[in-house]
Design goal:
There is one protein chain. A hairpin with a 5-residue loop joins strand 3 and strand 4. The protein is of the alpha+beta class and about 130 residues long. The protein has one domain. It is elongated and about 90 Å long.
């Protein structure tokens, strides 16, 4: 999750990655950050966060959903979003096909082709087991 590198006396740079999930719309995403630790002229320490080369606010302060703008966002270790997407794909895309439909008097005509069962999942539904109530 993190990696620290000394940048030749100019401070320390840590690399962090987080997974985020919006508790309103279910949007999930992952982001890598570089955290640059510095000391100013008065000896005070400060931190600068960058993502994709751009300066950004701390991802831990008040993250905002990129999809709906909501501020109730769950922060998790990296890889969680991808594992949930894989679980959804296995449950929906790779679901077994239903068999032929047969009426009460037997098949009256050529049975239709395979029927795929589809479910509409929200990421927030799948994150329910990961939510800890206090």
């Amino acid at each position: 999750m993190s990696e620290i590198a000394d940048t030749a006396g100019t401070g320390i740079t840590a690399h962090e990655a987080y997974a985020f999930a919006c508790m309103r719309c279910g949007h999930g995403w992952e982001q890598d950050y570089e955290i640059h630790h510095h000391v100013d002229g008065a000896g005070h320490e400060y931190v600068v966060y960058t993502a994709d080369g751009e300066r950004v606010p701390s991802p831990l302060s008040k993250p905002k959903c990129a999809n709906c703008g909501y501020h109730v966002v769950r922060i998790m270790r990296p890889g969680k979003i991808q594992s949930i997407r894989d679980m959804v794909r296995a449950a929906v895309v790779d679901a077994p096909l239903a068999g032929p439909l047969v009426g009460p008097t037997g098949p009256a005509e050529e049975p239709p082709g395979p029927v795929r069962i589809q479910h509409h999942w929200h990421l927030s539904d799948l994150l329910h087991p990961f939510q800890h109530r206090k």
